[in-house]
Amino acid sequence: MAAQTSRRQRLRAATVEEIRAAARDLLVTKGSAAVTINAVAREVGMSGPALYHYFANHDALISAVTTDFYRELAETLEGARDAVPAEEPMRRLLATCRALRGWATTHTAEFGWIFASPFGAANHGHDSERSQAGNRFERIFLDQFVELWRARPFPAPSPDCVDPALHAQHVAYAARHGDRLPPAAVHVFLTCWTRIYGTLCMEMLHQLDFAYWNMTPVFEQTLHDLCATLGHPYEPPDAE
């Protein structure tokens, strides 16, 4: 009986993976609007109602697919980071940033899904797999700024120079993450992340096509400015 149950579980797990893969294929080939219960069910050769035996509803399927993308992205970034020695935190950060752009430019549909659509932004509960996967992605960058700060504190503004409403949010963010960075350093971290993320999103959404046909030097300029902000020399990609 135990062996039969184990076989049933393996078959179920394989079907779940097939469903998730079909949803991803629909996203890549036809766009996010194509990822419906009925469309995914057709791809795997079952009826819409039958798919509900594996995912309770459309939101559950969306959450599972989003989780897959976040996990894959996190593994890519962690691999790039860990390929650089731990005693070189700035080079680790640069490698991570470039890996982020590399994944985005080769997975444009997936990047758009998790960062530029309501599917990725939807709240599925603080303890959900999707939230945990998103938090893992966030920690990759936060942890590296913590490493940089501990190795050699980077320039940060005095609280008197920051809008009180902004400072209060920095204090709250620092507290949520165990006060591993002081609020002033949180200000720098979030400012840098906004610049990196903003530049990448504008590229992925083709918002700068009117001016640039090659965004690599634009992104590298962003990394150059990031290094200057953090008080480190810039190293081009071939120096890594």
Explain how this protein is built:
This protein has 240 residues and is an all-alpha fold. The protein has two domains: 1-55, Arc Repressor Mutant, subunit A (Orthogonal Bundle); 66-239, Tetracycline Repressor, domain 2, CATH 1.10.357.10. It is 70% helix and 0% strand. It has eleven helices and no strands. It has helices at residues 2-30, 37-43, 48-51, 58-82, 89-106, 108-115, 118-121, 129-151, 164-176, 183-204, 216-230. Helix 4 crosses helix 5, helix 4 packs parallel to helix 8 and helix 5 packs across helix 6. It is elongated. The mean pLDDT is 92.
Globular, elongated, flat, extended or rod-shaped: what is the shape? elongated
Low-pLDDT ranges: none
Count of distinct strands: 0
**% residues in beta strands:** under 5%
The CATH C-level name of the largest domain is Mainly Alpha
How many structural domains can be distinguished in the coordinates? Answer: 2
- Which topology of the largest domain does CATH recognise? Tetracycline Repressor, domain 2
The H-and-E topology, N to C, reads as: HHHHHHHHHHH
How would a crystallographer describe the biggest sheet?
A: none
CATH-wise, what's the superfamily of the largest domain? Tetracycline Repressor, domain 2
Helix content: over 70%
Radius of gyration (CA) equals: 21 Å
What's a concise summary of this model?
This protein has eleven helices and no strands. The N and C termini lie far apart (55 Å).
